[in-house]
Protein: Class I SAM-dependent methyltransferase
Amino acid sequence: MGKGTEEKKEKEWDNLLHIRTTGRDDSHSDQYRYPYEPTPYSVLERLANSGYIGKKNTMIDYGCGKGRVDFFLAYQTRCHAIGIEYDQQIFEKAVLNKEKGVLAEKVSFVQADAVEYKVPEQVDRFFFFNPFSLDLLKKVLALILESYYAQMRNIQLFFYYPSDEYIAYLMTVDELMFADEIDCRDLFPGDNPRERIVVFEFE
Structure:
């Protein structure tokens, strides 16, 4: 898919969902919390069509930014979505999107530090697009595990564009099992091996 086609698709989906989510923002990023960059809609289409997320699921989107993942998946799969955002300014843009966004009643946003956010027991799907460092991921995963042991349920975690260190670590977590890989390399030029969504689930 060419860059122009991709940009056109981004605008079309934003318009359809009545939200504004384009553009990168690294004004408050540091070595632990990475810049806001929206997940391409073409990638989210792949995830929505995978069958892993449906109307009975509740998903947390870590580092949700302006809420693109949340609105899109709520619209496409009818799931409930909770976006967690650390940055006050970006969080406020997500809240603005909720005022006009399609299916906004299925979407909620929380301004919180992910390593302090207690995972609600109804949440069974988790989305990550490299929101933070490996050190923070380990702390977040500990909170997800705590919630899992409090209420055992089928849980799936989706990692888009994962780093090698993310994957290497996830493979060492006893409770986690590699479940699937959704290949997205054909959506972009360059045949980048990181263009994929890796799916893990709790055994």
Notes: The helical segments are 3-17, 41-48, 68-77, 88-100, 134-150, 164-170. The beta strands are 58-62, 80-85, 107-111, 125-128, 156-160, 176-183, 196-202. The chain is about 35% helix and 20% strand. The longest strand covers residues 176-183.
